[in-house]
Every structure is written in C-alpha cells, then in structure tokens.
Amino acid sequence: MKKILFAASECVPFIKTGGLADVVGSLPKEFDKRYFDCRVILPKYQCMREEFKNKLEYISHFYMDIGNKNQYVGILKTEYEGITFYFIDNEFYFSGQKPYGDLLWDVEKFAFFSKACLSVLPVIGFRPEIIHCHDWQTGLIPVYLNDSFQGGEFFRGIKTIMTIHNLKFQGVWDVKTIKRITGLNDYYFTPDKLEAYKDGNLLKGGLVYADAITTVSNTYAEEIKTAFYGEGLDALLRARSNDLRGILNGIDYTDYNPATDKHIKYPYDAKNFRKEKFKNKKALQEELGLEVNERKFMIGIVSRLTDQKGFDLISYIFDELCSTEDVQIVILGTGEERYENMFRHFDWKYGNKVSANIYYSEALSHKIYAACDAFLMPSLFEPCGLSQLMSLRYGTIPIVRETGGLKDTVEPYNEYESKGTGFSFKNYNAHEMLGTIRYAIRVYYDRKREWNKMVDRAMAADFSWGVSAKKYQEMYDWMLGY
Ligand code: ADP
Ligand code: GLC
To answer: Residues 28-43: pLDDT tens digits?
Structure first.
C-alpha cells in the first residue's frame, strides 16, 4: 500500500474559497484504494463548516518551536466518504473569520501549518511515501523536510510534489521577516533557493525543493514557462521543465449531476434537457426577480471577483451588451470591492435583466449552472478552471478565453462541421469577447437545433476524475520507482 498525504489550505466539504478546495476534496476519493492510502491534512479553522467542526476527534497535542515562538499543535481527525482527514489545531493562527486575509499574517500562519504537517506525522504514526503539497501555503513543506526533518530516520526518503493551482499567489515578504518567521537560516535565502527579486518566497521554496512539480492543465504548464504567465518564476520553471507536468483537473460527478442535484428544482439529464432544463431557468428568474420568460438568453457567472477572471473586459462592454441584446445576466461572486460594486450598479441600472448576488452560496451556484444557457469566463489566465466543467456537465454552454485549462476543456463551436462544446476567443480584448457573445446569441436564437446539439455534446464530454486520477497514480508510481 502506498501512502500519500495531501497537504492543503482548503478542502470540500470543510472549507472552500475556490477550486483548490474542490480538487483536494474530490481527488483522494478517486485513487485505487487497493494500492493507495491517501489522507489529507488541513488547518482547523474556526470558520470551517459547523456541522463538521463538532465531529472532529481529538488525537493528541504537543508544542513546536517555529521562528522565535513555541506554539501549540493540536491534532484532530475525522473520516469522510472513506477518506481520513487530519486537522492542525491552533487558535492563535486559525481563529479568523476567513481562511485568508492579511498577507503577512497568512505567511506566518502557513509557515506554522507547513512545519506542523511534518511534525505531527510520527505522532499519528502515518509515514507517507509522498507528501503532495498544494499551492504556496504548503510551499515550505519540501523546504523544512530538506532542512531538518530528513535527518531523522522516520522522514528519510519521503518524496514531495508541489502542485501549482495558481502561480499568482506565492507568499512573498521581505527576507528578514521570512527568516524570523520560519526560523530558516541564511543558507536558504539566495536566488537559487527561497529568494526571488530580493524577497523571501514560500512557493519558490516548494518549487526548488519538491521532487516533482505539477499544475492543473497542459496549456498552463506550458504558459507558466513564459514571462507573461510566469509571474517572475518562469526561468525556474523552465529550468525544472523535466520535472514539471500538467494534469487536468476533474470534478466530482456525483456532487455535480443535474439528474440528482438536490439544489435544483427540476432534475434533468442528457435525454430530457430539452423539456426540463428551461424549467430551472424560469424558477431562477422568479427567485431572482428577473423577467420570467424561458426564451431569454441567460448568461451565468459564478466566480471570485478578481482581475484573473477577466472582469475588466466585462466592465468595458456591459452597457453595450445590455442595451443592444436580448439577454439576462446572473452573477454570483465575492471578491474585489470595485467588481462587487460594479455588479451591484448594473443590477440597479438594468433591473429585471441583471441579477447580482454578491455573496457565497453553494445552492445558488448549482441553480445557476443548471438554469443558464451560457456561462461566461473570459479569464486573463486560468490554471484549469472548474466552473466551465460544471457548466458543461449541466449543458450550459461556456463562453471562454482560450487560455490555460479553458483552452484544454472547451472545444470551440465549428458551424461547418457541427462540432464543439462552447465558444471561445483568443485575445484579451473586450470587443473580441463581445463579438463572441453575440455570435453565441445568434446561434441560440436563429439555429436552436444546432444549439441543442451543442448541449448534447457538452453533456457527453467527460471531465470526471477517471483519466486524471490515473495520471497522478502513474506519477506516484514513477516517483517511487515502480
Ligand atoms: P478558482 O479556483 O480560480 O476560483 P475554479 O473555476 O477552479 O476557479 O473554481 C471555482 C469554484 O468556486 C467553483 O466550484 C465555483 O462554483 C465556486 N464558486 C466561486 N464563487 C462562488 C460563490 N460566490 N458561491 C458559490 N460558489 C462559488
Ligand atoms: C485555482 C485556479 C483554477 C483551478 C483551481 C483548482 O484556484 O485559479 O483555475 O481550477 O485552482 O486547481
């Protein structure tokens, strides 16, 4: 039995801010249980979902030195859908209202978490062959392992993988502060290790010291080796290109299934969507106070409201789109204040055409995936993207920019060969996007049969974990020399 430990800062169903949580929560279930014992370790946030918080079982606790502090490390445990989850408890660090906030505090919090992830292993008696680290919050795990832990017999030979879900966030602060917080000595703060552009960089530490690096789509794996997408680390990623691979994310086909989804009023499948899907549209129009009319072309957006997702393009053309086209637009998201306010403004301005829902809601997100005709995701960059996969699963046609995982998962409509599962455009340009939305609207109103055939193809596309989980298994085997 090969033992794998996932270390991450968020995970469905306990705590989620974005796609990372979906991946960490769904991938371990997909490994072949005869060969892999995959467990997950997370922070025990005060703000995690209440119903799970009460079910955690206390295992043990001890005190750990980190930087100039001596900190409490509690270990809790639970089982969920056949997977063992460990939680690191420390109220000093994890009692905030949200998992992330002030960056300096986050750097200290996740340095603590990373060291604690290693320190607890002998206590719980679980020695993973591979620690699979996700994003900058766990970037110090390979570093600490190399620094001190490898010296002990228990840890010797443990391998690490660093998976990049988003290269934009790296956990950066000045060297002096990072040294103080982490307790790492001068040796680590040179440009070939944790130092980048004179600062200390936690993700870079992970990328330098991990045995292998992955990211969440093939195209993003190529893109991050270029200056435009590389966020300052492209040279390092080029240098490590032999150890870097792209493995596309999947989604949980049980949680996201229009035939059994508890959040939607009218379940449907690939056979009856022509009759049933639009009932969900009417129900949502009613719920959100939009004009109730099944013929309206309804566009959905479910997203963190940040620059990454292309909201500046949307802001340029929103008025033009709403004043010239017969559309309805439903937004669900939270994030940067300027985008939250922008959508509130458009909601006020376009009354029963636009509905802005500036909050987080699992239920409403499912209703949007089910009810809309199209889903807009014009990202500036997108490591993989899960929302477009959820849309495809619900027969909601994605309109995307050709970047990262969006390029790898949405096949552009080809009207001559009747192929494709969505619409896409290449350049990061607002009018190129608007032209593509208009093209989608024309196909929807003028060639309904063609549109429905595209929905057939979208719903038949398979983005469950099957293939990708096997690729991770192959990589684990390869790293362990099988
Ligand atoms: P990212 O991880 O960059 O945010 P993804 O497309 O990979 O983008 O994943 C986003 C996930 O977060 C999806 O599961 C999406 O449904 C969910 N999501 C984003 N914003 C909200 C929200 N306001 N309410 C509910 N779910 C949301
Ligand atoms: C990140 C990326 C997103 C990806 C998700 C899960 O948040 O922005 O593209 O789907 O991680 O890997």
So the answer is: 999 999 999 999 999 9
